[in-house]
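Please, why this fold?
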Amino acid sequence: MSYALGNVHYARLDKGCFRVERVLNGLGYFPVIQGISGRLRELFGIIQLVTAVVSAVFMILEIILIANQELKKERIQQAQKVLEYSWHGIANILRGQLETLPVVNLGFILYDWASGLRWKYDCEGLGLTFTDN
């Protein structure tokens, strides 16, 4: 799958989401501040989830109406990519809720830096860093 499908440049979108999460991760490590950053992360997750689901619904409707098979395949790939953001949104909502709990937030330091389990955006797999444009 191409990293830019149609007029949507997923690399830019991924990088933006990555940057927001990176800032929220850092803020979430600090007691007291973690309560605010956790709520901001929940809001970010809700925006990701709602935007992805609404976009996917419109894409599915478009896919049903498209006769051109190549264009249909491209739109299906786009819909799959958009749905990835819904999963990121759900994960951010859950993490935001957990992050507001004192002491629990400190576990995310290990999760983010030591475990290697953190779910990454595609741009992270391409070797882009927080400061890349």
